[in-house]
Amino acid sequence: MDLVTPDIGLVFWTTLVFLIVLVILRRMAWKPILNAVNEREESIENALAAAEKAKEEVANLKADNERILQEARIERDSMLKEAREMKDAIVAEAKEKATAEGEKMIASAQEAIHNQKQAALTELKNQVADLSIEIAERILRQELQDGDSQKKMVDQLLKEMEKN
To answer: Model pTM?
Structure first.
């Protein structure tokens, strides 16, 4: 049992050396070690805070980007709607002009047809009048060659004039 139980002197000197080393370590080593640990802890906390701040900034930037994209989409839709309205207005105006021009051309054509018809009728009347005069002239020459026919004709014309 001697081997397992230490002497009182050994315990005393071991305890004394341990306490001296403990005091020296406390004064010389513990403060720098604890300061280093505290500094490390603070730097980790600062890094976590910075990471959290960066995460919030990224979230804010993402929200801003979404808002900007939404505004851009709204503006694009507005521009497309305006372009469609302009296109529809231009098409409607072109149709209106084409319709008006067509109506104008139709009216002009109808007027030209009417004028040509009137000219043709006038020419036809003139030709009919010329033919009638020519026919009447030939008939009168034949009928007026003898005196009795002339008297009959004059009497008949006078009767007709009296009726009118």
So the answer is: 0.41
